Amino acid sequence: MRLDRELLGGLPPLPEPNVAVRHELVIMATLLGSGDQQVLLTQWRALPDILSESDLAALQDLWNESLKESVT
Q1: Of 35, 42, 51, 69, which cross-links 55 as Cys (Cβ 3.0–4.6 Å)?
Q2: Between the CA of residue 9 and those of 22, 43, 48, 69, what are the distances in Å?
Q3: pTM assigned to the model
Q4: Tally of domains in the chain
């Protein structure tokens, strides 16, 4: 499996630029593949004035831990 990161390259780094903020954090998730070969892909987008990189890293760690707990 090869991911094409250029597909998301055209998206702005901030959610909904120039528009009133609806959410401080947007997590887009999708399954890629089929059958037993599926993987969960996520893209996290946040407002840097509200959530720092370390905040996002901590949230992503919690996300990953929760996913691991749900499958084991």
Answers
A1: 51
A2: 22, 12, 18, 32
A3: 0.65
A4: 1
